[in-house]
Amino acid sequence: MEHDDVGTALDELAAAAQANIDEWTAVLARIAQVRELREQGTPYVEMKIETDGPTIIGALSRNQERLTLAGAHVRRALARELSSAGWSQAQIAQAFGVSRQRVAALLSP
């Protein structure tokens, strides 16, 4: 069986999505903890936000980065697959909702 770049990219996207789900679950627990501490009257500066569990801000950055990288791999692999199947750059651009110039960049080595 030949190598399937789109399938591989989709596997990477699924792994990134699962990692994000796992991290968001931890973030939701952290948010609940912060809210509970606030209800008890604890000031934010005393919560050790930067060291006590997953940081909410850090999770935002990591989750976005994972999806951005995995999404880029899917777009590139799918654009190349469609191009190999005879789709024009204009057709791919329309399907992806991007410019032809963006498709040209996706197809470049």
Walk me through the structure.
The protein has 109 residues and is mainly alpha-helical. It has one domain (5-107). The protein has 4 helices and no strands. It has helices spanning 5-39, 56-84, 89-96, 100-107. α1 (5-39) packs antiparallel against α2 (56-84). The relative contact order is 0.13. The model has no long low-confidence stretch (mean pLDDT 91).
Describe this protein with a few key phrases.
109 residues, mainly alpha, elongated
Structural class based on helices, strands and sheet pairing: mainly alpha
In whole angstroms, the N-to-C terminal distance is 24 Å
Unreliable segments of 5+ consecutive residues = none
Fraction of residues in helices? over 70%
| Largest β sheet strand count, sense and barrel closure | none
Number of helix segments? 4
Strand content: under 5%
Whole-number tally of structural domains? 1
The ordered H/E elements are HHHH
Count the strands?
Answer: 0
Calculate Rg over CA atoms. Answer: 20 Å
Q: What average pLDDT do the residues reach? A: 91
Shape label:
elongated
Summarize the structure.
By secondary structure, the chain is mainly α. It has helices at residues 5-39, 56-84, 89-96, 100-107.
Give the arrangement of secondary structure elements.
Blueprint: H1 5-39, H2 56-84, H3 89-96, H4 100-107
Helix pairs in contact: 1-2, 3-4
